[in-house]
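Exercise 7. Given the encoded structure of a 315-residue chain, write a plausible sequence.
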């Protein structure tokens, strides 16, 4: 596989400067320590209030850390984004996302609440999604204190965070206790069966997040081989039989992203279930291209994402 000729020319310096690592148990500590070189705008971040809370975790589990960002000059009641970071289920943190969360709160004029869910392989499914549900419940139970309009709160995430956001939307729908206004999914990691596809995409997944890394991420989360029988849809949302009753959805991905086909298929199934869907596929984009560069294609993807969020939020 060599998809270099298909990469947007402005993105070529990224793949030349950032090595594509194969995630493994041996490399995981170094990968976690290194983080990702995210390109986040910093305008207006000084006007954002930021605080952290520790809330009671799921039964038998430790407390869940939550980060909250809110514009200082905002109106009394704001819409909200409940955010889950990416990292293949095995890495990432709310702290690493702070510049992006600050900019998002400012640009979308909303309250951003981000959850520090437990990572695999130390914590297998359903630990992470139950942490997310616990934090989402806390947001709604404390909406008045947070000055959030509970009717205008949706879920958002990138990569594994997008998968968790989609899984959380299913879980919130099925438990029926809290409203959910939208799901905003950026190249979401939705389907463990991509790891065992009989005819894998011949050009997707060469850069940043590869098939081998994907297998490691899913194996770490599930504690069994990807593609096994009876994988829960709250782990792999593409496994859900019924997608009806989910909120309006935004999905974006790069044409060279390993997840492009599972994301397009999820969008198709949502549409056939009567869910309003906005789908963007960016030619020449690989996994993380919007976060890793300030080039025109990346700026376009971020602009489209923010525009959709503002419509969802009514901001």
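Solution.
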């Amino acid at each position: 596989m060599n998809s270099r000729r298909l990469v947007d020319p402005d993105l070529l310096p990224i793949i030349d400067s950032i090595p594509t690592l194969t995630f493994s148990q041996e490399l995981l500590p170094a990968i976690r320590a290194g983080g990702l070189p995210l390109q986040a705008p910093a305008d207006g971040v000084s006007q954002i209030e930021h605080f952290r809370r520790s809330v009671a975790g799921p039964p038998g589990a430790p407390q869940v850390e939550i980060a909250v960002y809110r514009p200082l000059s905002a109106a009394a009641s704001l819409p909200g984004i409940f955010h889950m970071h990416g990292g293949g289920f095995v890495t990432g943190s709310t702290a690493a996302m702070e510049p992006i969360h600050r900019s998002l709160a400012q640009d979308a004029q909303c309250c951003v609440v981000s959850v520090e869910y437990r990572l695999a392989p130390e914590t297998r499914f359903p630990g992470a999604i139950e942490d997310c549900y616990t934090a989402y419940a806390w947001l709604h139970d404390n909406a008045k204190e947070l000055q959030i309009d509970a009717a205008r709160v949706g879920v958002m995430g990138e990569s594994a965070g997008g998968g968790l956001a989609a899984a959380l939307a299913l879980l919130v729908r099925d438990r029926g206790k809290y409203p959910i206004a939208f799901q905003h999914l950026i190249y979401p990691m939705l389907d463990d069966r991509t790891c065992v596809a009989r005819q894998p995409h011949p050009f997707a997944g060469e850069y940043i997040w590869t098939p081998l890394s994907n297998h490691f991420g899913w194996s770490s989360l599930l504690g069994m081989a990807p593609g096994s029988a009876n994988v829960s849809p709250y782990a792999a949302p593409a496994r859900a039989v019924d997608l009806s009753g989910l909120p309006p959805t935004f999905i974006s991905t790069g044409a060279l992203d390993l997840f492009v086909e599972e994301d397009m298929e999820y969008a198709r199934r949502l549409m056939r279930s009567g869910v309003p869907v906005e789908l963007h596929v960016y030619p020449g984009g690989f996994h993380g291209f919007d976060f890793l560069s300030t080039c025109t294609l990346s700026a376009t993807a971020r602009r489209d994402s923010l525009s959709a969020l503002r419509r969802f939020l009514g901001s």
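Remark. The chain is about 35% helix and 20% strand. Students should compare their own answers with the one above.
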